[in-house]
Design brief:
This protein has 457 residues and is an alpha/beta fold. It has four domains: 12-45 and 101-257, Rossmann fold (3-Layer(aba) Sandwich); 50-98; 273-334, no CATH class; 336-438, Translation factors (Elongation Factor Tu (Ef-tu), domain 3), CATH 2.40.30. The chain is built from eleven helices and 18 strands. α2 packs across α3 (77-98) and α5 runs antiparallel to α6 (150-164). The longest helix is centred in the N-terminal third of the chain and has 22 residues, at 77-98. The mean pLDDT is 91.
């Protein structure tokens, strides 16, 4: 296969390599264009060695049923130090298991890919930053009853880590296999949709600083995935396939709803924040059951259980978690609809006139779903987006969405924001959730009152 070399400045570029076909093709294209590429893999996890496994096995006989060191060994400083090491290894192993879809291919395989392409390869660790900026934020958001998008946090961390290596590796640019365009507009860099109509990674890059964006190359933006896969056949036997990449992406997108995350709660969430309380039905405040802590539940959950194993309401989902008191509310899924999305923290790319309502598309980060409607820019970063057609479901506070000029390739990104709430209008009033019993009664009473007759003078 021939690759045309464009007339461009040749640079030394750090390419983020995860062992997938997208990053491999990114490096291959840039090298064929004449750039000097350096493959860098970012490890988000601590390695567990055979010695570590041996220590874990050895300590099984030295622990209480609660996992603490036996009392008769607590006076031995050597045993205490070994126990601290045991806890650290156990924790790292748990992180590695729960977040396995976030891991790259093995260093050996990525090294082979780089050798095949003909570029040097380095590994750098960001395990501490990953735990602090992705895992910790995810857990805190769940307990607080707020949505978060850890895939965005991870993508931001990847680019910032690569950027931090520019000086030491004497490089001028960084590159990744994201499908998005970065376009200079006046004194800043903004995002634009790629040529592929299905694969769009713009939302993953919205939290990246202008400084990092100014050093970023995304060569896959002009290609479609089918074209990338065809080029990738040159190294396909070594890379993670498109099917496997998409499978892992789905698992990463489900991180917020991963029930195994409960195992990590004690380290991140103070026990005083965890409340034992009641699960209510939003419709009439009737009791569904009791629970032993809101950390065991998450927004949008449908397969929830009560502490006393009462049967859950059919076709219902959790729509609200009260952090301060521990109340959890569920609603019947068929009653959830919205026609307006209220947002805050809006970042305006200033690529269109936003002094008036903007007809555009919005795309939700957590689901990838798109909606056509009108965007209204308010003060202090607040916005609302009115859908052309009412939609079923509910979107949660903290989720992220972007606005595009059209639903297609090369669409300009107008800006992005965080969701504050969604809801619908009933008799002119805005409601986040379906009307509960009391609200229905009040509305019926108001509608039954005789209206004042306008006399016209």
């Amino acid at each position: 296969m021939q690759f045309a070399k464009k007339d461009m400045k040749k640079e030394r570029i750090i390419v983020g390599m995860d062992g997938g076909i997208d990053s491999a093709v990114t490096a291959l294209l840039l090298k064929k264009q004449g750039h000097e590429c350096i493959g860098v893999n970012i490890s988000f996890f601590e390695k567990i060695t055979s010695e570590d496994e041996a220590l874990l096995e050895q300590f099984k006989t030295k622990l209480t049923p609660e996992g603490q060191l036996l009392e008769e060994l607590r006076g031995d400083e050597e045993q205490l130090e070994a126990f601290r090491q045991y806890e650290k290894i156990s924790w790292n192993k748990k992180i590695n298991r729960i977040f396995s879809p976030w891991a790259s291919e093995s260093e050996e395989k990525i090294r082979d890919i780089c050798r095949l392409i003909g570029i040097p390869f380095y590994v750098t660790s960001a395990s501490g930053a990953f735990e602090e900026r992705v895992i910790s934020k995810l857990l805190e958001s769940r307990v607080a009853g707020i949505w978060c998008n850890p895939t965005i946090d991870k993508a931001t961390l990847v680019l910032e880590t690569l950027y931090s290596k520019l000086s030491v590796l004497k490089a001028t640019k960084i590159a990744t296999g994201h499908f998005s365009k970065v376009i200079p507009v006046q004194n800043r860099f903004v995002l634009s949709a790629p040529n592929d109509t299905v694969k769009n990674d713009c939302h993953l890059l919205t939290q990246v600083s202008n400084e990092v964006m100014s050093h970023l190359k995304l060569p896959l933006a002009d290609l479609k995935t089918a074209e990338v896969d065809k080029i990738g056949q040159l190294v396909d036997s070594k890379t993670i396939s498109r099917v496997e990449l998409e499978k892992r992406a789905v698992l990463r997108s489900q991180a917020y709803s991963n029930e195994e995350i409960i195992e990590l709660t004690d380290r991140y969430i103070a026990r005083s924040f965890i409340k034992e309380n009641t699960i209510y039905l939003h419709d009439d405040d009737s009791v569904v059951g009791e629970h032993k802590g809101q950390h065991q539940y998450y927004l949008g959950q449908t397969q929830y259980k009560t502490f006393d194993n009462k049967p859950k309401l059919p076709d219902s989902k959790i729509v609200s978690i009260n952090m301060s008191r521990g109340f959890i509310y569920v609603a019947k899924a068929k009653e959830l609809t919205f026609e307006r999305i209220v947002g805050n923290h809006f970042v305006n790319y200033e690529v269109v006139d936003t002094s008036r309502p903007v007809e555009c598309y919005c795309r939700i980060s957590s689901t990838g779903k798109g909606y056509k409607g009108n965007l209204y820019i308010l003060n202090n970063g607040n916005i609302y987006f009115d859908l052309d057609d009412k939609s079923e479901g509910i979107l949660f506070r903290g989720d992220h969405f972007i606005f595009l000029t059209k639903n297609g390739p090369s669409a300009k990104v107008i800006g992005h924001a965080k969701i504050f709430q969604t809801g619908q209008f009933i008799d002119g009033e805005f409601y986040r959730l379906p009307l509960n019993k009391k609200q229905k009664e009040e509305l019926e009473e108001a509608q039954s009152r005789p209206k004042k007759r306008e006399l016209g003078f």
